[in-house]
């Protein structure tokens, strides 16, 4: 029987996992609370493991092409002459500015486009309740906000740090603020 994975969150982690599971024969459903793919966010520098994931998904060239095109950082004097320069890195890890700089929304779009034919996406939907019968040879049943029930062999919560579905499973999880703030 084909195994079914229900993944919550259609940002970066959710679609990337759906791709890998679908490639291994899983049936995959992604539910996303937002009514459509979220395209907000600033640029992300993709390095190391993240870059390797894109490579394995066959998306490395597409991500480079969709990148911001940043060429690095240059300090200039009053006349505009360069006094110091940090060019973008070349390759997977080098440079203050990475070779692969891409807007978060563009990265999410690429991942969604790569997976939408092999994964069922449900936007404007979320998990309200989970019942785990796997200890008794059964599956996990998820009741969605729409009232529909979905059975799955695996439920993955990829909802970011403030996940409500995680609270359904583990109760309140304390989040440690690291002090990073947007300038006001
Ligand atoms: C809109 C947005 C903008 C961001 N901008 C930046 C940025 O500029 N720079 C940067 O470095 N990082 C940014 N991030 C964070 C970065 O994308 C993530 O930290 C990282 O990619 C982790 O991805 P993730 O897929 O695990 O979770 P996230 O990217 O946090 O995505 C979680 C997804 O789950 C969905 N979701 C949340 N709760 C539920 C629920 N109950 N049911 C169903 N779906 C749910 C969210 O709508 C979202 O689509 C942003 C994230 C988001 C969502």
TrEMBL record:
It holds the Pfam family FAD_binding_3. Residues 5-169 form the FAD-binding domain. Gene3D superfamilies: FAD/NAD(P)-binding domain. It comes from the Bacteria. This is FAD-binding domain-containing protein.
